[in-house]
Amino acid sequence: EYFPHPQDRSKTCLKQQSTVKVNVPFLSGYLERLLIENFEKNAMKGRNGMEWVMDRIKEEDSSNKVKQESSDILTQLETKFKREAEDLKQSMDSFFHKTQANTSPL
User: What is the dihedral of CA 85, 88, 93, 94, to 10 degrees?
Assistant: First the structure.
C-alpha cells in the first residue's frame, strides 16, 4: 500500500504486510521463520527495484532540466549576439555615412 508521508507530502510511504499461519505444530516455527525470511528478501528486492526506477526518473528529469537550461542559455546568447551585431552594423553604417559626407571630391 502506497500513501503520502504524514509529515512530508513530497515523499511516499510503502506498507507491506503478510500473514503466515502454519497448522502443523512441530513445523510451525520453522516454516513461519522460513516464509517470513523469504518474504522479507522479496520485499527488499521490490523496494530496491522501485528505488532504482525512481533514481532513473530523477536522473532523466535532471538531465532534461540541464538540457532545457542549456538551450535557454544558447538562445539568450544568440539573441544578444544578433543584437550586438545589429548595433555594430548600424554604428559602421553611420560612420561610413559621416565619412562620406565629410569627404570632399578631388
Answer: 150
